[in-house]
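Sat 14:20. Reprocessing the chain from the morning session after the first attempt stalled halfway. Input below, unchanged.
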Amino acid sequence: MDLGELLDPGAISARLNASSKRQALSIVADIAARQLDIKPAEILAKLMQRERLGSTGVGHGVALPHARLKGLDRMHGVFVRLKSPIEFQSVDDQPVDLIFALLAPLDHPAEHLRTLAKVSRVMRQTDLRQQLRKAHGIDAIRALMVQDRRGAAA
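Finished this time. Tokens:
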């Protein structure tokens, strides 16, 4: 699946304020709820449930929270760039300012894992992370995300 298929323009937000992991995930849930017609509290509960298993902070200022939800017919993504990094209990102990949340249908676990792996590979790219941090606006962020990055290295 192409990242452009995951990220509707309304599912991208730049320069948001959050003071904690829970607040950042609540923002993600609110954005997703508007796109998916699912209650934000349900999305937040699933994201927090996953975080209790272990942080989705993957390093280099990136978090990849993810959850499987009832009522979805395909994979959906939400991308948030925070104004200031927040503590996320990341694997490298670095704060997070780039969050790419993945929401998957309940009945497609293999697709969920494949897509999560792809998003992880893309977000490991140093040049992309730098460009995302400098991008001016939602259109610029989306353009960076939809570039063909299949062969890019970490």
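The beta strands are 12-16, 57-59, 62-63, 66-69, 76-86, 96-105.
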